[in-house]
Amino acid sequence: MKFFEPFLEPFYLAADNVFKNMFQKDIQSGLIQYHDNFITTREANINIGIIGDLAGSVIYSFSAELAFNISSLIMGMNFNELNGFVTSAVAELSNIISGNTMTYLSEQDCHCEIKTPEVFLGIDSMIQTKNSVFTIPIRSAIGNFEINVAIESR
């Protein structure tokens, strides 16, 4: 996939790498979208702040189906509600993807750190971001999610 914003590709590459290594699943990107603000479109949303050469946040938006599947794969139990176990699992997955993204960025001489994840549950809620949002829709065999990138260069 070719990205028109150079800072978007590391997010996709990190997610692809993590899904292959943790779940043995491929992912596919859909058409990248641009938004002035962020309204949640999926049930489980994880907001991770980014500081350093780039500043802003990335919001991972997981369908409930994917959140349950991830939790089941990680913990070996079945889930059917967005409880603390499920939100903890998707927050940790988001942290892992973000950490891998920071590694990819550092290889391009762009040095950033991530902050502690914040969990937001529900659809149609606005999450304030300082910057406009680029949404990378992702499909996988275990469910769909979005990587919403709202960062700027310093």
Blueprint of the fold:
Layout: H1 9-23, E1 27-29, E2 33-35, E3 38-39, E4 44-52, E5 54-62, H2 64-75, H3 84-106, E6 112-114, E7 118-121, E8 126-127, E9 133-140, E10 143-153
Antiparallel strand pairs: 1-9, 2-9, 3-8, 4-5, 4-6, 4-7, 5-10, 9-10
Helix pairs in contact: 1-3, 2-3
How would you portray this structure in words?
With 154 residues, this protein is of the alpha+beta class. The chain has a domain at 41-120 and 147-154: 3-Layer(aba) Sandwich (Chemotaxis protein chec), CATH 3.40.1550.10. Helices cover 32% and strands 35% of the residues. The protein has three helices and ten strands; from the N terminus they run αβββββααβββββ. The protein has helices spanning 9-23, 64-75, 84-106, and strands spanning 27-29, 33-35, 38-39, 44-52, 54-62, 112-114, 118-121, 126-127, 133-140, 143-153. The strands form two sheets. Strands 1, 2, 4, 5, 6, 7, 9 and 10 form an eight-stranded antiparallel β-sheet that branches. A two-stranded antiparallel ribbon has the order 3-8. The chain is globular and about 45 Å long. 38% of the residues are buried. The mean pLDDT is 93.
